[in-house]
Amino acid sequence: MRTLISPLLKGLSITALACAIALPAVASDSKTSEPTAKQKVVKKQKRKRDPRAKIYRTKSCMACHGRNGARAIRDYPNLAGQNAKYLKQQMLDIQSGARVGGIEEETGHPRTKGMADIMHLVDKKEIKDLADWLSDLPPAKLRPPEEPVTEEQIAAGKKAYKKLGCKACHGKDGTKASNKAYPIIAGQKKDYLIHQMTDMRDKIRVNAKSKLMYGVIKRAKDEQIVAIADFLSSIQRKAKKKK
Amino acid sequence: MKTYMKFLAVGCTALMLSGAAYAAGNWNEGNEEQDEALHLTPDHDGGIDVYEVCSACHQLNGWGLEDGTFPQLAGQHAVVTIKQLADIRAKNRDNPTMYPFALPREIGGAQALADVAAYIEKLPMNPNNGVGPGTDLELGEKLYKDNCVRCHGERGEGKPDKFYPLIQGQHYKYLLRQFEWIRDGKRRNANPDMVKQIEGFSDQDMVAVMDYVSRLKPPKEKLGDPDWVNPDFDW
Is A12 on the interface with B (CB under 8 A)? Predict the structure, then answer.
């Protein structure tokens, strides 16, 4: 039966599919003894779904960080494929107020404020689950920069990255941190990277292990920060190999 | 189609009446996009598209959260939703969490506003919204009848022709926060006449009246089944 209807279902949009099944499926939840084929399809889909994804989708994370943590809006960070330990610590710090960001001009609030205001919705266990789930997801696909970046600019960024000694902790090209508590910074969004480097240089971001950054980042000039951001944001990270 | 026509009618009346609203103070100055949105014909599929991102916070059903973090949107008059979005965008309502989602860059222009507002208006409402402690309902009722009915209506149904929001069936904790902000001037888009009306309200009065409001049930035809799941989305 399922094989018979599945090609048909494939042709329908997901929305229409949900429309067609959701209501009867709900109505007959407790009573039916023999689920229909359609309901089986729904059940199968449900089973496949990770409960941690549900936290992400219902506790508002998705609105700002995008589908599967890989399509963040504005200058907000992508989270997919980041080290779990790092993610967890940052969530705890944004929740407690230990991590703040620079002031967002448009709203007059620190950039962390919008998220801080919802973090009472998740507890420690959910934060850990979210961190584990996000870190296993494939990293975001690069999107073309708003303004084209020259080869020279990327080379300048690479040079500054090397000269300032970022490699010691973030790896040769930012794709591999030397410690699981440190962030992977390659493939992250340009504007977000600029904010963070600047916030740490100016000691606005002081949470967790930020101090480790101070020694090197204090020597970074604005134009080096921009060049490094151009360099790092131009690197497409590879997905982790499945275990 | 009928609902679209209704929306259209409401939108046009609202447009005509907005002149009167200007005179009452600057709580409803509007802007081009808001005015444009108010007389566009909403599109249902467009509404689903735009609402998807809203649902990450306001939930799939538009029922919000009982703890008041996210208000229920379902059932709100379209004109009110459009005005609130315009106000958040214009920073007349301080809402750092939602701010980006009121911007055209994230959700689209006037048509998107019209689409999502009409979509929200038609969503069935939460039958089990959060209510207050229930300790002072008599006082609450009296305060409501003396101070609020003329704008928000007998049952908290609001007046779309004047942009007065529907407040029935809203989560108590959200109502309380808004009321406090309006009283204390933190919500800059508040209606000056309402601010005057509630000037002398003590914290006890505030709790009593909001408790009462949270228990004003929307009419049956506006309420959803407790188990209702919005079929327009697959998660």
Answer: no
> Which of B97, B101, B231 shows the shortest C-beta gap to A22?
B231
Has this prediction a pTM greater than 0.90?
no
pLDDT tens for each residue of A74-102: 999 999 999 999 999 999 999 999 999 99
Q: Which residues form the domain of A167?
A: 150-243
Which range of residues forms the domain containing residue B212?
Answer: 24-222
Q: Are residues A207 and A118 in the same domain?
A: no
What pLDDT, on a 0 to 100 scale, did the predictor assign at position A48? Answer: 65
ipTM: 0.82
Among candidate residues B57, B63, B59, the one with its CA nearest the CA of residue B75: B63
Taking the C-alpha atoms of residue B139 and residue A65, their distance in angstroms, rounded to an integer, is 45
B227: closest chain A residue by CA: A26
Report yes or no on A14 lying in a domain.
Answer: no
Number of domains in chain B: 1
Residue A25 falls inside a structural domain: no
The string of pLDDT tens digits covering residues A35-63 is: 455 554 554 455 568 999 999 999 999 99
Distance CA(B101)–CA(B78), nearest Å, equals 17
